[in-house]
Write a structure and sequence with these properties.
Elements: H1 4-8, H2 11-16, H3 27-36, H4 61-64, H5 67-86, E1 95-99, E2 112-114, E3 130-132, E4 138-140, H6 158-168, E5 172-176, H7 179-183, E6 193-197, E7 213-219, H8 232-235, H9 238-247, E8 260-263, E9 267-272, H10 275-297, H11 310-314, E10 325-327, E11 332-334, E12 338-341, H12 350-372, H13 376-394, H14 410-426, H15 432-447, H16 458-468, E13 472-476, H17 481-489, E14 502-504, H18 514-524, E15 532-536, H19 539-547, E16 551-555, E17 570-572
Parallel strand pairs: 7-8, 12-13, 12-15, 13-14, 15-16, 16-17
Antiparallel strand pairs: 1-2, 1-5, 2-3, 3-4, 5-9, 6-7, 8-9, 10-11
C-alpha cells in the first residue's frame, strides 16, 4: 500500500509539532535513529545489550522474557487486530507503539514495543514486535517467517514515534489510516487545520471540553516530493530540516494542546500518556471526523457552535452598519469572517475584574491551595509558580520571595506561595502562572454561585446576532482560557459560550506583541488577517493587532482609561454599532 519513503517525506513536518520553541534540530536524532533501526545488522530473533542509567539491564534475557515485556507484546498484537477490524491498519498500513510500563524504571528509559512495517496487522503475534531501548536502538528483531511473508522490518514511522516519546513524554503512539482521517482532510483542500466544536466526544480529547474548539493541524502528504529523488540521508540533512522548521505550519507554540497530527490524504498520528489514553483519543478523533463528514454531506458546518448551514456560515454577510469594514471592491460595508474580543473594558466592566474577580482570588489563595494541595491541577499550578518565582528572584522583581522545597512542609510552601501571588496581583502581572491559578480559584467561586460574569448590556445581544449571521467569535484575554469559559458560561444572561468558537490566552503570546496576533490569524485559518476584526480598549494591543494585519476598533466604555489623542483607530461605544 505504501513505500518506505511515503512515511519519510513528511517526517520533518510532523516531528516538528513535537518540538519546543528552542526547535532542537531533528537531524542528529533522526540520522542516529535511522542508522540504528531499519537493517541495523541485528540478527533476527536476537537481542542487543542495553543498560539504563540506574544500572538495570533492560535487555537482559530475564528482563526481555519478563511479564512486563510479554504482556506489552501481547497487547500490541491484540490492539493491531482491533484496529484492523476498525479499518485503521488495513492493507499493512498504519502502526502502533507502546512503552513497557515499569514502576522501577524512569519513563524516558523504559523499553519500547513497536509493530513491524508491511505486514498483515490482523495476523500479528506477540513475538512479531520489535523491542527498542528508550533512545531508539533495536534490542530485539523478530525472526523471519517463511514465504510468502516478507522479511520483518521496523516501522518507517519509528523516528517519528521516537519524537513523540522524546518531546511529548508519550506512553504510546498510534498511526491510523482510517478512512475518516483521510477523507476529512479533503473536505477543504486548502485548510491547514481541522476544527470542530460543541460535540460531546471532544471531551475525550485531553485538555478539551464540550464548549472548546478542537483544532488538529493538517500537514501535506507530498509537501517535499522532490526530495525523494535523493537518498534518505540527503532528504533529511540539516539544511533540509531547518528549512522545514522555518516554513512549518505546526509550530508547537500555536498548538500547545494538540495530541494529534493529520496527514492530508493519508491518515493521522495520535499520542497519549498511556496506551489507554492514545486509544481513547484515537476513537474520539475518528468519531469526530466521521461526524464532520456526515455534517458536510448534510450541508451543515461542523466548526460552528450551532452547526448551521455551510453557505450561511461561510459567506461574507453584507449589512448597513455604523462602524463596519469597507469593502473597496463593492464600496459597501461588510462583516468580517471572525471577530476577536478582549474582555476587560470591552465586553466586561473593568470594575468587575478589579473589584470582584481579583479580590476574590486574592482572598481565597491560601484556602484554595490548602484544600486542593494534593490535586493534579494545584500541583501543576505550584510547579508553574515555582518556575516564575525563580525567574523573578533572578531578575530582582519586587515582592518575590523564595518558595521552600516540598520537604519543608505544606504550610510553609503555601505561605510562600500566598505571599508571591498577592504581590503578583498587586502588580497586575499578566503572567500564565498567576492567571492559571486564578482561573482555578474562580472555578470554585462560580461552581458555588459566589461569582457571576458581568457584561455590558449590548454584549449578549450582539453575540447572538453575530452567531445568527454565521460570524465566528473568539476571545483573547490575559485571563486563562478556563477563566474565560467560566465568565462567559455563568452570567445573568445565561451561558454565552454557545455563541463563541474558541478562546486564546497568554499561552499564545503577550497581547501587546504583534507575533501573538500572527499566531491567532494562522490558527483561525483565514485567507487574510484582515478578515478578522479585533475589539479592545487598549491602544497598545490595537497597534500590535493592526501590525499583524487585523482590522481593529477600540471599545470606549465607562470607566476605561482615556485614549491618547490622534490614536488613529475607529471607536465604538456599543457592539450594536457594528
Amino acid at each position: 500500500m505504501h513505500t518506505d519513503r511515503n512515511q519519510i517525506r513528511y517526517l520533518p513536518q510532523v516531528a516538528a509539532a513535537f518540538l519546543p520553541a528552542s526547535r532542537t534540530p531533528l537531524s542528529r536524532f533522526y540520522l542516529r535513529t535511522t542508522n540504528a533501526i531499519p537493517h541495523c545488522g541485528v540478527a533476527k530473533g536476537e537481542s542487543m545489550a542495553a543498560v539504563n542509567g540506574s544500572g538495570v539491564s533492560l535487555a537482559s534475557q530475564a528482563y526481555m522474557e519478563g511479564n512486563a515485556v510479554k504482556e506489552t507484546r501481547a497487547l500490541v498484537a491484540d490492539l493491531c487486530r482491533q484496529f484492523y477490524s476498525l479499518g485503521w491498519v488495513s492493507g499493512t498500513g498504519g502502526s502502533i507503539t507502546i512503552k513497557v510500563h515499569d514502576d522501577c524504571i524512569p519513563k524516558p528509559q523504559q523499553l519500547i514495543l513497536m509493530s513491524p512495517s508491511g505486514v498483515q496487522k490482523e495476523r500479528m503475534e506477540a513475538e512479531d514486535m520489535y523491542v527498542m531501548s528508550g533512545n531508539g536502538s533495536i534490542l530485539y528483531a523478530p525472526s523471519p517467517k517463511p514465504y510468502p511473508h516478507k522479511p520483518p522490518k521496523c516501522s518507517d514511522c519509528a523516528p517519528l514515534f521516537m519524537k513523540a516519546y522524546e518531546m511529548r513524554d508519550a506512553g504510546a503512539v498510534i498511526h491510523s489510516h482510517g478512512m475518516e482521517s483521510c477523507l476529512v482532510t479533503m473536505l477543504n483542500p486548502s485548510a491547514k487545520e481541522f476544527k470542530i466544536t460543541h460535540m460531546e466526544m471532544i471531551k475525550g480529547i485531553k485538555g478539551h471540553g464540550y464548549y472548546d474548539e478542537l483544532v488538529v493541524p493538517i500537514i501535506e502528504n507530498t509537501a517535499y516530493e522532490n526530495e525523494l529523488t535523493e537518498s534518505l540521508t540527503k532528504a533529511v540533512n540539516i539544511c533540509y530540516l531547518q528549512f522545514s522548521y522555518s516554513t512549518l505550519l505546526l509550530p508547537i507554540e500555536a498548538y500547545p494542546k494538540t495530541t494529534a497530527v493529520l496527514v492530508r490524504n493519508h491518515g493521522i498520528y495520535v499520542w497519549g500518556d498511556t496506551w489507554i489514553s492514545a486509544k481513547t483519543q484515537s476513537e474520539c478523533y475518528h468519531y469526530l471526523f466521521d461526524a464532520a463528514i456526515k455534517l458536510h454531506q448534510m450541508g451543515l458546518d461542523w466548526s460552528t457552535p450551532s452547526h448551521g448551514p455551510i453557505q450561511q456560515a461561510r459567506g461574507a454577510i453584507s449589512a448597513p452598519v455604523k462602524a463596519g469594514l469597507k469593502d473597496s471592491s463593492h464600496n459597501s460595508e461588510t462583516f468580517p469572517c471572525c471577530i476577536l474580543l478582549d474582555i476587560e473594558g470591552t465586553t466586561t466592566p473593568i470594575t468587575f475584574v478589579a473589584d470582584v474577580l481579583f479580590p476574590y482570588a486574592r482572598d481565597n489563595v491560601g484556602k484554595h491551595l490548602s484544600a486542593t494541595y494534593e490535586t493534579e491541577d494545584t500541583q501543576e499550578d505550584i510547579k508553574l509558580l515555582r518556575s516564575q518565582v525563580e525567574d523573578d528572584l533572578a531578575h530582582g522583581i519586587d515582592g518575590a520571595v523564595p518558595i521552600p522545597p516540598d520537604g519543608a512542609g505544606k504550610d510553609a510552601v503555601i505561605a510562600a506561595l500566598v505571599a508571591n501571588v498577592e504581590a503578583m496581583i498587586r502588580a497586575d502581572r499578566k503572567i500564565t502562572a498567576l492567571k492559571q491559578l486564578q482561573g482555578h480559584i474562580w472555578r470554585t467561586g462560580f461552581q458555588n454561585n459566589e461569582l457571576k460574569g458581568e457584561f455590558y448590556n449590548d454584549v449578549p445581544e450582539a453575540l447572538q446576532s453575530w452567531h445568527a449571521l454565521g460570524i465566528k467569535v473568539y476571545i483573547y484575554s490575559s485571563g486563562s482560557r478556563l477563566a474565560q469559559r467560566l465568565v462567559f458560561g455563568n452570567t445573568k444572561s445565561g451561558d454565552l459560550r454557545k455563541y463563541l468558537s474558541g478562546f486564546f490566552d497568554t499561552n499564545i503570546g503577550n497581547k501587546r506583541e504583534t507575533s501573538s496576533y500572527v499566531q491567532i490569524s494562522e490558527s483561525l485559518g483565514v485567507d487574510s488577517p484582515s478578515e478578522i476584526l479585533f475589539l479592545t480598549d487598549v491602544v497598545q494591543e490595537a497597534v500590535a493587532a493592526k501590525a499583524a494585519g487585523l482590522k481593529v476598533m477600540i471599545s470606549v466604555r465607562p470607566g476605561n482609561a482615556p485614549l491618547p489623542e490622534n490614536h488613529g483607530f475607529k471607536t465604538i461605544n456599543s457592539f450594536l454599532e457594528i
